[in-house]
Amino acid sequence: MSVVRLCARNVFRSIRDTWVLAHCHSGILAPRFVVRAFAVLNNGTGQGGDEAAASAEDRVTTGATDGKWMKSQTINFGRGLNEQTVALNAKLLAVLNGKGNKVLRLDDLVRTTTAPFDGKTLDVALKLIKRSFHLSPRERLALGLRVLQRARGQNVWLDSMIILHFLELSQPSSKPSMICAITRVVVAHQQAFLRSFPRRPSVRTPNRHGSTTDALALDALLRYFLSHKLYDNAAEVWKNMREQAFTVIPSPDMSFSILSSGAWVCRTSRNADEVEWIVQKFAELDVTPDVRTLDLLTFTCIRARRFDTALELLRSTCRLGYSQHEKTLLYYICASREAETVNALGELIVPLGDVLLDSQRVGTTKRQKWFVFRAYFEALHACVSDEQLDQRYKEDAADFAERFMQTHQSENLLFSSFVVYLVSRAGRFNEAMHVAHDSQREGTSGELLAFAYDALLELSVKQDCLSVAIEFALGRAGDAAAAAFVTKIYISALGRLGRPDLCGEVFNAFARLQGMDPDSADARAMLVELGASATASGSEALVSPVSLCLSEDQNASNNQTDQNERVAAKNMSLDEDNPGSQLKVDHSET
Question: Region Disordered: start and end of each range (predicted)?
Fold first, then answer.
């Protein structure tokens, strides 16, 4: 090297050192922080950083600014004009382009050359190693590690492209632990420098794929770690590299791939803090997520009890026309039932009804669709019966129930019973009677569930319409067992309401229907006998709703009749055309 070039280099370093020390003295950069960063870049560990920082502080306070203490910390960005390095790079490029010595032994060259490496040397050498097919995969990987070690020893800037090179080198031998170690080295190297010099020296212009090397490396690493089930490493890489990967906007396909992998990271690491960042990035980049990504983000929010975000994601799934997965919906229903306050429960459970009705498809199959609706109706029933909802939310639940009957035209008595119950609890007697009459039109067999009759009777007493309820329930001739079933429910409900005076009116209507004297012993015996027959024949098997995906209702009736009815309902067989029948689902994944 000529004397002129050496003098110019020394002058440059002196100016640089004076600038760094001046900033340290002004408080913009702390001396300990700067020196530790350079120490990490130099040896990869940062050992001795505290001693160097203490020495730097002494120099700043004493005014010693000779700059010698930082000369060994210079980062090699590959922009120098070292003649040996230029010659080495030209030789490697010639071989890479097929114009030089095709039998060049890189291992000997790395061991014998005295030329300092720069970023270009490292990149070209790794490309040549990948083409050295005369070496085994293990030998190519070992040679690549030696080249990387040599470059680190000379403070070469480690770009994210290095990670891509080693991912390709490690594929045949499958070395996840080695990839983890190299990734940590590169990330620590870059972060340590960026903390001191925010303007990064690496190339940030998009490549021919429309993405930066940072984005390409992050996407490849996430796919690699997730495929090998190294979820902790995937979370670490996501945390350290996601910001720099989007410094220059990647291509839409690359952005979609990275953010979708990020959703998997959130799901596997149970980190709901990143969900909002991912959703915001999708919106900023105008990239549409797929249904699996939305489902992963929703599931993560539900698990973290962030129901507001989860509900908004469910609405987004609905707006995009995607299918709502049954497991996510059931998990939301079950988890939201654990809300402690009345208002919170109403704000979580009730709005889900609009999502279910507005979605183009609920569940993966028709069977799962009815399963979800039944679970949702049971959740509403439990909340209303336990007085966990304010009146305004009861009104909203009744609106959902009426809308459900209009859109689905369900002839299933289970759903009709839920609708009658919810509408009755909202104080809408005429609407409840309308649904009840539709459920009992000609050709329909069976009865509404007991809780529907109970709610209907209670509302009729409050609104002085008991005669209408009695006429509806007992007015069908030729069905003595059903009449006895409803009569027993009415009498039991009136007893709980403290209206024994009305019990006689109900019993007299039943006796007149059977053509008997209400005061006779035969009428009372027939009521008991028909009631027992109804229980034995299964007419009373649907007295209370069966808890499917939720825990047993702690406030359910304690009488033995309800207990027998619950057991009978659990023994019902499943039929594709009977969505109200008992369904069984494995919730191990939720």
Answer: 553-590
